[in-house]
Amino acid sequence: MTIRVEAPAKVNLFLGVGPCRRDGYHEVHTVLCALDLCDEVVVESADTLRVDVDPSLGIDQSENLAWRAAEALGAAVGRDAAVHISLRKRIPMAGGLGGGSSDAAAVLAALERAWGLAHEDPRTSAVARLLGADVPFLLDGGCAVLGGRGDALERRLATPRVCFALVNPGVPVSTAAAYAGLDRRPFEASAGTRPIEAAIEAGDGLGIGAALFNGITDASVRIQPSIAEELLALRSAHGCLGAAMAGSGSTVFGVFDVEDDAADAAREASDRGLWTAVARPRVGGTRASVRGAVL
Which of 130, 158, 186 is the last residue of a domain? Predict the structure, then answer.
């Protein structure tokens, strides 16, 4: 059995965060958009569970979310997760782009097919929610509004007709630290998701750029001030319609109507030694990209 899966990155076009709930999670209202920037995940039959990562993340394989995904789904459906998982990383670690969550979603999608489970098997969905708030969304991708702790689908949206310049300052931000900093200050009010939903529906790139919002930005900037510097640089780039931080950072992104303008903005940051990419919205998630032999 050899199955290849593309694991897409994501950005939060809107991220509103409320107070901490009784279960320890914050109430989240977000608009997520999957990107055509992807890790490559290969799942093969093996004698025992193993995860290899290129380039190495410097963590034990059992700490990788892809490992946990295989173990958890195996336990849920009564299967031995004896597979070799190979991850070719293109999405920066701890950058707010959901790379680890997407790798986990890719493993779930691959095993769902390999083990002959039903498409969108409820056990797969339950495991995805346990693994992380972004994992359920990344199984199916596209663009959507989510609530709860960021894992409850409210409605799907059209694919935004824009492109993105992504810039990572090279300094990770701990999600736990960002939320802890957020809890020490008043929560930032927003106009809600309706303005950006309307802009996406109208195909209005300028409206999308104007409606971008991330309520964690100030907390993450206090941890890594370079985030603010890169946001300013993107907003100053020719053709940029708006810029925001992805997740809890540290990656930031600019919205552009013209791909050449996005490429120019990314090139300027790359010339300063930063990781950059140009990406477009992606219709499907990991399930849509499953390909290969099932033996």
Answer: 158
Can you list the residues of the chain whose pLDDT is less than 70? 186-187, 189, 294-295
Distances, alpha carbon 44 to alpha carbons 57, 70, 123, 142, 165, in Å: 21, 12, 21, 27, 34
H helices of 88-166, in order, are 99-114, 122-131, 135-140
Q: Do 43 and 49 meet the contact criterion of CB atoms below 8 Å apart?
A: no
Number of domains the chain contains: 2
Write the pLDDT tens digit of every residue in 94-117. 899 999 999 999 999 999 999 999
Domain of residue 64, residue span? 2-158
> Is the pTM above the cut of 0.85?
yes
DSSP structural state of residue 189:
P
Q: How far apart are CA 66 and CA 39, in angstroms?
A: 12
- Active-site amino acid positions: 10, 134
Spatial separation of the C-alpha atoms in residues 39 and 91, rounded to whole Å: 6
Q: Give the residue from 127, 158, 189 where a domain finishes.
A: 158
- The percent of residues in the chain predicted with pLDDT above 90, rounded, is 83
